[in-house]
User: Fold this.
Amino acid sequence: MLVVQKYGGTSVGDLDRIQNVANKVAKTVDAGNDVVVIVSAMSGETNKLLDYATHFSKKPPQRELDLLVSSGERVTSALLSIALQEMGYNATAMTGRQAGIKTDSNHTKARISSIDPTPMQNELQKGKIIVVAGFQGINENGDVTTLGRGGSDLTAVAIAGALNADVCEIYTDVDGIYTTDPRIEPKAKRLDRISYDEMLELASMGAKVMQSRSVELAKKLNVDILVKSSFKDEDNNGTLITREENVMEKVLVSGIALDKNQVRVTVFGLEDKPGINAELFNKLADKNINVDMIIQNVGHDNKANVTFTVPETELELTKEVMKDFENRSEEISYDENIAKVSIVGVGMKSHSGVAATAFDTMAKENINIQMISTSEIKISMVIDEKYGELAVRALHEAYGLDK
Ligand code: ADP
Ligand code: ASP
Ligand code: MG
Assistant:
């Protein structure tokens, strides 16, 4: 079998842990498999490198940023390969470029445009274990790009797809996908299986256990993902992320996500005329700003208030875009003290009353709901940031997820 394994930041967080990963990889090889390993940078490393850059510049050039942060993953890939070779295994480390990963030029959140599997296939044919530095590729100019935070998950899924691997395993510091972040609610339960769509909603609504774009790609390529713990040997069945029809139990709600890294932008008294929203949201889209919830009230006196949310990391860019609208509105305000809680489940498609339970729960806890958005399988609410964890625990109980 061809097995793709990805080890996250905590799993390669120090030298002992890299040795532990080497042992796990060796075991998989001993069992008769071909193995391609994808590694993240040591935990905290990417943030440290980003801090170094901001020491010199408030807005570092993105091309240089990518070159800088891609180094974290190179360190761990080389170290893991060294450890494996020392144990007598035939291993080779590769950067994103060496692994044939091409991307667009959207620095710091590039999209993979293609993977040439030949270099990896050649090494596999020679019986080598391949250790790929995650999170990176190159654009058509040959510049290093990175794939967005948590992007090693994407590298793993893309490689599993390109090599047509039999298994794609994501090893992390939890032993699977839980009904909510177990750090917030210790009563959270591990799920045996979850559908791509549910995982995608949980991930894009803040559950950082899987990068959302990696789930999107897995669905597109039909790659099953098994999320497991890198610290457990026994009782480590993990969670399978797969197609909806493979998920037997159609539960109403499968999980709750919390995202505290959003900002609410309110444009008061914006000129109320056809085309103004098109202009506003096109300008944000041109800058690749990820707008999530949007609300516009009923206008009067040819003026309306428009509210939307953007990721905290895109706040500065958003402010730049919004300059264009300053003299066409009365006031623009930014609130970083918000949290978005989301309830996700495919069972919602055929059930009403799910939203009512959410609103009742917020009312009982005396939490004010500032914004609401829904999709077929999700309800999201924006609330005051300080009630984020409380809301997660209350909703987790209200939907019986601890049972
Ligand atoms: P890695 O470094 O391995 O990529 P991450 O830190 O990116 O790991 O993701 C793992 C973390 O995701 C867990 O430690 C956990 O706190 C968090 N998490 C958030 N939501 C969930 C969830 N629903 N199930 C499991 N873990 C979750
Ligand atoms: N090291 C990168 C990050 O911290 C990518 C990853 O860990 O997946 O975002
Ligand atoms: Mg991650």
The radius of gyration is 22 Å. The domain at 2-173 is CATH 3.40.1160.10 (Carbamate kinase).
